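re: that complex we talked abt at group meeting.

here r the seqs, copy pasted straight from the sheet so there may be weird spacing, ignore it
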Amino acid sequence: MTNSWTDIKNTDLVVIMGGNAAEAHPCGFKWVTEAKAHRGAKLVVVDPRFTRSASVADYYAPIRQGSDIAFLLGVIKYCIDKDKVQWEYTKNFTNAAYIVKEGYGYQDGLFTGYNEAIRDYNRDSWEYEIGADGFAVMDETLAHPRCVWNLLKQHVAIYTPEMVERICGTPKEKFLKVAEMIATTSARDKTMTSMYALGWTQHSKGSQNIRAMAMLQLILGNIGQRGGGMNALRGHSNIQGLTDIGLMSNLLPGYLTLATDKEATLDSYMSSRGFKPLRPGQTSYWQNYKKFFVSFQKSMYGAAAKVENDWAYDWLPKLDVPGYDVLRAFDMMFQGKMNGYFCQGFNPLMSFPRKNKIRAALGKLKFLVVMDPLQTETARFWQDHGEFNPAKPADVQTEVFELPSTCFAEDEGSLTNSSRWLQWHWAGAQAPGEARSDVWMMAQLHLRLRKMYAAEGGAFPDPILNLTWPYANPADPQPDELAKELNGRALVTLRDPADQTKVIQEAGKLLPGFAALRDDGTTSSGCWIYSGCFTEAGNAMARRDNTDPAETGAYPGWAFSWPANRRILYNRASADMAGKAWDPTRKLIEWNGTNWAGFDVPDIAPASKPGEVMPFIMNQEGVSRLWVRRGMKDGPFPVHYEPFESPITNPIAPKIRGNPAARVFANDMEVFGDSKEFPYAATTYRLTEHFHYWSKHVQVNAVLQPEFFVELSQELAKEKGIANGGWVRVDSKRGFVRAKAVVTKRIKPMMCDGKVVHIIGIPIHWGFMGATKKGFGANTLTPFVGDANIETPEFKAFLVDIRAENPPVS
Amino acid sequence: MASYQSADVVRRSATTFTPPQVRHDQEVAKLIDVSKCIGCKACQSACLEWNNLQEEVGINTGSYQNPHDLTENSWTLMRFTEWDNPETQNLEWLIRKDGCMHCADPGCLKACPAPGAIVQYANGIVDFVSENCIGCGYCIKGCPFNVPRISKVDQKAYKCTLCSDRVAVGQAPACAKACPTQAISFGSKEAMLDLAGERIVDLKSRGFDKAGVYDPAGVGGTHVMYVLHHADKPEIYAGLPANPRISPMVELWKGATKYVGMGLIAAGVVGAFFHRVIAGANSVSAADEANAAALVDKTGGQA
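got the structure back, here u go
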C-alpha cells in the first residue's frame, strides 16, 4: 500500500476492482464502512461476479476477467476527453512533459523492439530524449508530439466506451457511470482509493493492470494524499514482509536486486545501479544503493566482508536466468533437473497451477522437506486419495520429511501487514508436540551444514563458513536478535561528516534509521528499509500507542511503518507547488518556509524547497511515471492483451495470444485450451469463510463452508441442465474436477465482441487433507503461465467446459 | 443455559408470580445493520467458539448458507437472498443474520409449560434454562420467528442467549465483538434506536427511501433489531415476518383456554361436591358382593 488500512477512512470514493475486499479482507474492510458511514464516501465495485463487496456497494459494474486494462485506459481517455485532470499535479509531479526519443512506435499491440523468438523486447527505443546537459528533455507546454502526454493520448484513443463494452462486456452506460464517479476525484479536494489484490496480480499482465490504475490515480492527483493511493491488499498476514525481506529468487532484502552472472565484479554490478538523477536537483534516492548493499553484506558476513574482497561480493549467488521463480523451479523439477526441495510455509500442490504437473514434479525429487504447522497436501502428494489425489505410492521414490513447525500464534516476532506496518506479536500459546520454530530449524540446518563444510570442504565453502552467526545461542536465534540485525548497527563510532565533533552513533549501538547507513563498511543492516524498527530507544514494532493527532488516520505511535515510520508514501505530493495542502482538510505535510512538517514523516529531505525538489524521490526523474523507460518488460504503457486462454480474439490485436512478453514453457504451451473445446471463461478466488488451505483444518471453518463448489449463472445452468446443489464436472485442458454447483444470479452472461461469454467461478479452498469434505483443488484446472514481470500465475482467467455429472469416487 | 442473572428475572415460564427484583437493569439491544453486513460469518464462528458448540461439517446444497438452517448448535446463521429490485432492475444480495430476536413479549416463554425453563431478564434477554426444560417443543410453536431447536442428544431446546453470560459481566455478545464491519452493535435499547436513526439517514441519502428499523410491535418490540434498506418489505430478507405475533393457538392456549380449562376443572370439583351432597356416597349392592364372591371362587383365590 502507498497508504494504510486506517487511511481508507479519509476517502471520498473507494474503487474495488481486481479484488474483493469484503470477502478476502473483511477486517480491513471496516475502514471502507467507516468512510461510508462517517464521511459519506461512495463504494464502486467492478468485478466479473456480484461479490460480497458488491453487496454493500453504491454502484456495481460487471467486467469480464482479464480485461481490466481496457477498462482503465478507457477511464483515462474519459478523464482526458472531459478535462477531468488534476493539471497542476499532472504537469509537475508526473513525466507528462518528458519527451521520448525518436524511434519509438506502437502498432497492433506491439511496441518497437519486439523479438518474437525470445518473447522479449529490446527496450532501447523506450528511452527519453536526453539533452546535451545529460538530463531528460521536457516540454512543459505539452505541445511536443513525442511528449509523454501526447503519446498517452494517442495510446488510449482506441479505448472508447464502445470498445470498452466490446472487450470487457461492461454495458456502456455502466462504464460511463463508473468513469464519471472516478473523474469527480480530479478535484483538489476529492480523493479516491484503489483497493486491489490478486484479481489484478494473477494475470499474465498483472503488473500492467496495476500500472493502469496507478496512471489514472496520478492524472487525478490522488497519489500521496490522505484517502488516495494504490492500495494492494496482501493475501497473507506477512506477504508484505516476504517481499520486503527479499524472499524472491532475484531479490535481496529491501528491494535490492541479485547480481546476474554477467556482473562478475562489484563495479559491474554497481554500474547499472547508480541511479543518476535525470533532472537537475532531484533526489534519486537509489543513489544510496551502495550504502544499503554494503551494509547488507556486513550483516551477512561481518568482518569477513572487507573492501579488499569487494565486501564479499563473490559469495553471493549470481543469476544465470532472470529468476528462479516458483514456476521455473517446478518446471525444472518436472524435467528432473531439480532433486531436492525445502518447502516452508507453502503448499504448492494446492496453490500452484496445473496440479497434475506439480504432483508429477514432486514425484521426481529425491527428497522433499515440508516445514509446516499442518499436514499439507504437498507433504502427502504420494498418498492415494482416489480421484482427489490419484497417486501410486509404490511408484514414488521421493523421500519426504515432515517437520512440524509452530504457527504464528505460537511464536514471537513481527508480521508486516499491507499498510507496511511491522507489528510485533508475542506467543499466545505453547506449540503442541514436537513443533519447533522455523528459525530453530534453519539454525539446526545451518550449524550442521557448516560443520560438514568445515570438516569435508566442498565445492564452495566460503559463503557458508563465513556467514556471521552472532546469536547468544547459535542453535536457537531469538526474534529480537534477528530484528536488531535487520535494523543494523554502527560498527565503529559514526561521526557527522559535516561536523566531526558530533557523534551520530557509538560503536556497537543500534542505528536510528537508514539515513545513517554508509558504504565504507562502518555500518550493517540486514534490510535497509526496516532500519529504525529496533533502535536504542527500543522495539518500535512493539509500540501500541493508538493516539491519532488531528485524526488523520496516521497513528504514528502504533507499531513501525517502513520506511522511517512514514505512513503515506509520496506525501510531499499532498501539497501544491508552493508547498500548501491541495485540500486544507486533508493536510499531511506543508512547507513552513524552511522545512516540511505536519502529521506524517515527510517523504522528502525536510529542507528541500518546493518547486525545486519533486516528490517522487525514488525515481531518477523526481516525478512519477505515466511512461516507463525500462522498468516494465512488456511495454512503456499498458496494453489490453487477452488471457492466454480467452473466449474471444483480442479485438485490438487479433494476432497476439496472451501477453507477448510473458514467458511460457513449451510443455505448458501444449496444454493451453481454446474456446472451441473449452467454451467458458473461468476464474478462481477465495471465500471469506476460509484462509487459503489452512482453515479447512479447523472444524468451525469447515462447518461454515464445508464442500467444494463452483458457481455459474442461471442461464448457463438451464442451457446445460445443471441443478442447483447438483454435481458437475469441470474440465480444462489440464485436468478435471467434480464439484457441487451453486447456480446464482450473481454471475450473469456477458456480451463480448458480439459473443455470449459465460463465466464459471471456482473457489480454491478444498483439498484432500483437513476437516472439510474432500475436494479436488481449483488449481487442477489453472494454466502454468505467469505475469511477464514477476511470474505471478494466471489463476484469474482461463477456459473450461462444464457438464452435469456424478459425485466423485474416493 | 444456566441462569447467571436469577436476581434479574422478571418473567418465568409456567409461573404466575413475578419474581422479586433486586436489580433494575437497563434494557439492552443488539442492532444488526443489514446494510453494513458483508456476510462473512465471523458472528457464526464466534457464536460456536464462545458457546463451545460442536456443529457438524455438512455439505453444500447450492448456497453460501451453511449450516442450511438454525440448529441446536448453530444459534445464529447468515441467510443469503438474491433479490432483483424491480424498481432499479439491480440485483441485491441481501444477507441477514438470523437468530433469537429476544422479544419483549416472548411467545416461547408464553407457550412453555415447564416452570422456569424460559426466563426473561430485566434487561430484556430471553434465556432458556436447560435444567428446567422438558423438551416438549412448545417454545418452537410459540416463537413467531421459528428460532428454537430441540437437541437430538439431550432433547432440550436451544437458541441464542444474547450471550447473557457475557452481558452479565458488562461484555457485548460474542457476535458483536467479532463483527469486522460493526454491522452488529450492542448497547441500551435507546442508544441502539438512536444509532439506527443515524444509519437510516445515511441510507436514505444513498437512495434507499424505505430504509428503516425493524422492531416489530406485534411482539412488543425486540431486543435484537435490524436496520433494513427496504424496511417496507422485511419478507425479502429470507422471510423475516412483516408483522410477527405470537401464534393465536398459543395466545388461546395460554389465554382464554387456560382460564376456561381451569374453570372446567373447578366446575368438575364443584359438580362432584354437589353430587356427593345430593346423591350421597356410592354404596355396594348385594348383587355386587355375590359377583365378587363368584370371581374369587373361579380363580381359586390365585388371581
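couple things i noticed - Chain B has a mean pLDDT of 90. The two ends of chain B are 52 Å apart (CA to CA).
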